[in-house]
Write a structure and sequence with these properties.
mainly alpha; single chain; Farnesyl Diphosphate Synthase
Length: 248
């Protein structure tokens, strides 16, 4: 397994997602669906690590990618302006992608995965709602929320297909990536709703320190998990590249 092979697998899954949700009218007004390649990598992690992988699993991974695309489209909506044609079509595209994933799984009779993904969507949305509540939360609570937002859908996919041994590595890596993004936006870029809520809790200077500590803690936890989970060298290097840390 080489980095090139990993990237090819990700691109193949990405194209499969695009084919399933491509809609001519939507593409006239809005961009192609947003698909996070890091999320796709972790969807494919069991396959990339040599687990038995068949067409049904690839189909399941594709539908989970569609779910993620749906959620990303809704995340694009401006908080105070959803009246333009572009904004309205972005909402519709998210709904359209949701309908496509339900249709694919229902046609395949994969009710168990539908149930798991529904649970993951609820968990994710509950944590996003927290950002709009005017209550104080500790940094540990914020990290837990960000972890759930970033990982709930893939974790449910793992549970549905008995791949839960990969959950801890996935969760730490994606949490690091999200914390790094929050740090980036804190330094003068457009903040997320969660980022604004965290800054309201702690102030910019204290939040910068807390994010730094949280990233270092998650990196240590990821290192420990990778030491116990047998992954190929190429896969481990790919994970460290994702979280922008040199290979241990």
């Amino acid at each position: 397994m080489h980095a090139t092979t990993i990237q090819q697998a990700i691109q193949q899954l990405k194209e499969s997602i695009f084919v399933r949700v491509r809609h001519r009218a939507l593409l006239q007004y809005i961009e192609a669906p947003s698909v996070d390649e890091t999320q796709l990598f972790f969807l494919l992690l069991p396959s990339l690590n040599g687990e038995l992988w068949h067409d049904e699993l690839q189909e399941s991974a594709t539908t989970v990618g569609i779910v993620q695309a749906s959620l990303f489209e809704h995340d694009k909506i401006k908080e105070k302006d959803a009246t333009s044609k572009e904004q309205q079509l972005t909402v519709l595209s998210g709904d359209y992608y949701s309908g496509r994933y339900y249709e694919i799984l229902a046609r395949a009779g994969n009710i168990a995965l539908i149930q798991k993904l529904a649970q993951g969507i609820v968990e994710r949305c509950e944590q996003e709602i927290v950002a709009y509540e005017d209550t104080y939360r500790t940094m540990e609570q914020w990290v837990d929320s960000l972890c759930l937002i970033e990982t709930a859908i893939i974790r449910k996919f793992y549970e549905a297909h008995s791949f839960s041994k990969y959950s801890a590595v996935m969760m730490h890596a994606l949490t690091i990536q999200r914390l790094q993004n929050e740090m980036y936006t804190l330094r003068g870029h457009a903040p997320t709703a969660v980022g604004r809520a965290m800054e309201n809790c702690f102030g910019q200077q204290e939040l910068t320190h807390l994010l730094t500590v949280a990233i270092e803690t998650q990196q240590k936890l990821l290192t420990d998990e990778l030491a116990t989970l047998q992954l190929s060298e190429a896969v481990q290097q790919f994970i460290w590249q994702i979280v922008k840390v040199e290979t241990r």
